[in-house]
Amino acid sequence: MSNLDIGIIGTLAALAMIALRVPIGLTLGLVSIVGITAMISMNVAWGMISATPFDFVGQWELTAAPMFLLMGYICTTTDMTKSLFVSLKIVLVRLPGGLAVASVAACAFFAAASGSSVATAAAMSRIAVPEMVKAKYDKGLATGTIAASGTLGSLIPPSVLLILYGVYAQVSVGQLFLAGFIPGLVSALIYMAMIVTRVKLKPSLAGVVQDEISREDKIAAVKDIWPLPLLIFSVLGGIFAGVFSPTEAGAIGAAVAALISFLRGSFTWVAIRDAVIQTAISTTGIFIILIGSVFFTRFLALSGLPQAFADVILSVSDNVWWILFAVALLYIILGMLIDSIGLLLLTLPLVLPLVQGAGLDLVWFGIIVIKLLEVGLVTPPIGLNVYVIKGALGNLVTLPQVFKGVAWFIAMDIVTLFLIIMIPAMSLWLPSLAFR
Question: With contact defined as beta carbons under 8 Å apart, do 159 and 205 qualify?
Fold first, then answer.
C-alpha cells in the first residue's frame, strides 16, 4: 500500500471517527500515530509523540487564546453582558424588531470581548431569548438571532479562531485582527437590516411593542453601556496603535475586565474563580485539538495527500475563482458535521498548500475561511451554536424552531461572504496600515 493510499484511508477514518463523536483531538492523534507507524515505523511515531506537543504548545503566540477566553468569561461571570443587553434594549426597543436588533448589537460587543462564538451564544441565549419570548417574539426569530449573532465571535477581533489560523498559517495575528474588523461589523449590520426589514413586512414576528421610554432612561442606559466598549477600546486600540502585541493584549484585556467589574461593584472572588475554571476547561480542549492537528499535519505531509489534493483541484482549472469555490464547498459540507476549531485544524494541512501555490493572500483567505466556519456553526445537521442554545434554553424552544430561525441569517452570511470575496479591500486595506 502506498503512502498516498494510507493518507486517504487515514483521512476517511478520521472523518468516520468524528462522525461517531470520538473527540477530535484524540481522533487526529490516533490516526496520525497509526498512519506514521504504517508508513515508516513506530519509533518515528513515538519520536513525534515525545517532542511535538511541547514544541508546538510552547509557542508564545498561543498564550493569547486562553487570555482572551479568560477576559470573556470574566465579562460573563461578573454580569457585564447582562447589563449591556438591558441598556441596548432600552436604546433600540422602538425599532422594528428592537429586541432582536439589540441582541445582535450585544452579541457583537460581547464577541469582540470574548473571542468565542460558543461563549457568546451561551451567555446571550440565557439573557436575550427569554426577554424576546416574553415580548411575544417569534421563537425562530429570537433563537435564530442569538445563534447567528453568536458566530460574530469568530470574526470580530479578538477571535480565538483567528489566533489559531494565524499561528498555524504563520500569518501575523495582528494583521488578521485588523482584517476581520470590517467584515465582522458588516455582518452585524446586515443582520440588523434583515431583522428590521422582516419585522416591517410582518409585524407579528416581533410581538408587542413596549411603552415609550423616557429620554432620561435612554441617557441612563447609554451610560451603562460603557464597560464593554471601554474594554474593546483598551484591547483593540492598543493592538491597532502598536502599543502592544495581540499576545500581550489578551492578558491586558483580562486585567482590564477584572478592573471594570471592580469599578462596577460586580467583582467577586467566586466570579473570578468560575471564570478561571471555565477558561482552563476550554483551553485544555483547544490545546488537545491543536496537538492532534499537528500530528495530523505531519502524517498528511508524509503521505503526500495535500499535494495530491491540490493536483486534483488544479486538474479541473487553475483559476482562482474555481479554487475558492472548491475550498468553500469543502468547508460548507464538512462544516455541517464538524465543530469550527476541529474543522479549521483538520483542513488547513490540505488547503494551505493549494492556496499558497495559487498565490492568494493568506490574510484575505483567512477571513474567508473564518466566515465559512461561521456558516458551519449554524448549518444543519450539527450547527454547534444551535445545540448550545437548545441546551441553554431546554424545553423553551425546539431544534426545528432554531434551525428555521437561522435560515434567514445563513442567507445573510452568504451575502457577506460574497462581499468579502468580491471586495478584498473589505479585509485587506486595514492590514496595509501596520504589522508589515
Answer: no
Query: What ranges in 20-138 are assigned the alpha helix state H?
Result: 24-39, 42-57, 64-77, 80-92, 98-114, 117-134
Residue whose cell numbers read 426577554? 131
Which segments of 91-243 are extended strands (E)? Answer: none
What is the per-residue burial (b if ≥16 Cβ within 10 Å, else e) of 294-313?
bbbbbbbebbebbbebbeeb
Is residue 352 a contact partner of residue 114, using CB atoms and an 8 Å limit? no
Give the angle 339-16-380 at the CA atoms, nearest 5°.
Answer: 40
Task: Assign 215 a pLDDT band (cuts: 50, 70, 90).
Answer: low
Distance CA 323, CA 135 (A): 46
Tell whether the model's pLDDT for residue 429 goes beyond 60: no
Q: Amino acid identity of 43?
A: N
User: Band of the pLDDT at 213, cuts 50, 70, 90?
Assistant: low
- pLDDT tens for residues 311-327? 888 888 888 889 889 98
